Design the sequence.
């Protein structure tokens, strides 16, 4: 799972509240940041990782990014099965239309 984080919006050093294992988060976030392109590489057409010098996104970054994505992957606990029903309450369509008009 891709994390919601990007070079312009990197993961925070302190874990978000939904993270189950904060100590693990700090390690993952540190490595995520290490496996990013150097500043002068970020606007390059083919940036390379500042840590392992592979073309970026490098394999390691992708692994850490996936772990961060799982850590913030929503309110469901790990290993729980996805519910088939709607995850969010459905708002009445009329309320949405009224909000859009105001
Ligand atoms: Zn790398």
Sequence:
């Amino acid at each position: 799972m891709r994390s919601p984080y990007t070079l312009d919006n990197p993961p925070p050093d302190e874990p978000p509240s939904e993270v189950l294992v904060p100590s693990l988060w700090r390690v993952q976030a540190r490595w995520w940041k290490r496996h990013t392109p150097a500043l002068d590489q970020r606007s390059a057409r083919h940036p390379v990782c500042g840590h392992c010098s592979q073309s970026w996104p490098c394999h390691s970054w992708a692994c850490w990014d996936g772990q961060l994505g799982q850590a913030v992957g929503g309110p469901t606990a790990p290993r729980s099965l996805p519910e088939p029903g709607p995850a969010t309450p459905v708002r009445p369509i009329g309320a949405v239309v009224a909000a859009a008009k105001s």
